[in-house]
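Q: Given only this backbone (405 positions), what sequence would you predict?
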């Protein structure tokens, strides 16, 4: 098995790593890139395009990849690789889903996932067919003081076919662009074609973890894959970032859906078992409290399950808003104290909302926030939260609230 060295750089412009160039990059992280490009490169052996890419890629890493940003002499790939890579937050989450000694990351990219897997596995094979990117990861691993990532400049599926022995887990984040660089969403249209490669992958490992686009339809993915044991829907600050499918060889029982919303001070979780027989929740007019599920729960489609689990009542089948007389403090989403419910009538609104300032959310209403603001003259901001929604009797109302969390 060929193991790449952490010393020799064959395809990278090592002049980028000199002290004066690194100082230039760091001193221009807040500069206007277009103006910088217009001035041209102050170095004879580095183009302004190379400098601009290092600056832009490092800029994008500041919040997404703080470990890389804070480490000296990191070599950055084209900025699109930074845009497409996992964040450190999501990489850490997925690294804790699986255990073992040897893992193969067969679509390694910039290596953020491999970095976090390397903290828990004895050996991580990072497979990347792009020679320059593979070398960048190889070099950066040394800068990050990681000794157990073995970079392999090879097609990941080919690596699995040629690997002698067994792996504890195979991780794959298939490319979601076709040969014309257009976005694709079905797993069969990605590279590699995961559904068609499953037999090969399962021949070397009993566990496969797949990362997919947050836009992927869950039912579509389940139909394309086999042996799905768990689906993790990962949101960060209420924005769904990743869908993770954990497959286990020969598994054919129920599928566990795990939703997680990672916030600054807490993490919201809601788990349930996928069932094709939907349970029917109770319905009600607005009571004392209102609840809006986080985006991970909404992506999971657990619209009835969450109502039944927390003993809440739904306002309408398609609104996905919930209500109760007793406060559910651990609800995975936003919670509000209902102050009043008023019909969508301009004269009544003028009387009931005299401050003319509120945060507005639309759920199953038929009009956009912009239309509502134009018609009601309610400006954005303040401490009042309004949900424009439809009740069970099909009436359009504004539910006026104060936020609890």
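A: Predicted residues:
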């Amino acid at each position: 098995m060929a193991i790449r060295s952490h010393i020799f750089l064959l395809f990278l412009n090592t002049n980028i790593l000199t002290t004066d160039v690194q100082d230039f990059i760091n001193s221009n992280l807040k500069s206007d890139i277009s103006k910088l490009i217009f001035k041209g490169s102050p170095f004879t052996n580095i183009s302004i395009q190379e400098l601009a890419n290092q600056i832009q890629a490092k800029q994008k890493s500041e919040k997404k990849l703080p470990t890389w940003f804070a480490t000296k002499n990191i070599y950055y790939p084209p900025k699109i690789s930074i845009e497409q890579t996992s964040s450190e937050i999501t990489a850490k989450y997925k690294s804790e889903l699986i255990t073992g000694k040897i893992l193969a990351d067969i679509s390694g990219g910039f290596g953020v996932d491999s970095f976090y897997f390397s903290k828990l596995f004895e050996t991580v094979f990072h497979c990347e067919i792009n020679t320059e990117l593979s070398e960048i990861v190889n070099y950066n691993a040394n800068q990050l003081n990681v000794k157990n990532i073995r970079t392999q400049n090879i097609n990941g599926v080919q690596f699995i076919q040629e690997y002698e022995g067994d792996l504890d887990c195979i991780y794959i984040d298939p490319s979601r662009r076709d040969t014309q660089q257009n976005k694709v969403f079905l797993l069969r249209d990605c590279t590699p074609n995961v559904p068609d490669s499953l037999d090969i992958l399962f021949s070397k490992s009993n566990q496969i973890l797949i990362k997919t686009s947050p836009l992927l339809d869950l039912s579509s993915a389940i139909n394309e894959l086999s042996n799905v044991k768990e689906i993790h829907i990962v949101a960060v600050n209420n924005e769904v970032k990743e869908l993770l499918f954990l497959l286990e060889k020969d598994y054919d029982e129920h599928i566990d859906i795990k939703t997680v919303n990672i916030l600054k001070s807490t993490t919201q979780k809601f788990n349930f078992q996928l069932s094709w027989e939907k349970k029917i929740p109770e319905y009600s007019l607005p009571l004392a409290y209102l609840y809006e599920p986080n985006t991970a729960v909404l992506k999971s489609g657990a619209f009835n399950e969450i109502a039944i689990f927390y003993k809440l009542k739904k306002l309408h089948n398609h609104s996905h808003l919930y209500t109760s007389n007793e406060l559910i403090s651990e609800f995975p989403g936003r919670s509000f104290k209902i102050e009043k419910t008023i019909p969508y009538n301009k004269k009544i609104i003028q009387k009931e909302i005299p401050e003319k300032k509120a945060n507005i959310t639309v759920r199953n209403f038929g009009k956009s926030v912009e239309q509502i603001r134009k018609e009601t003259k309610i400006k954005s901001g303040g401490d009042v939260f309004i949900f424009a929604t439809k009740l069970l009797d099909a009436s359009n109302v504004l539910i006026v609230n104060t936020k609890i969390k």
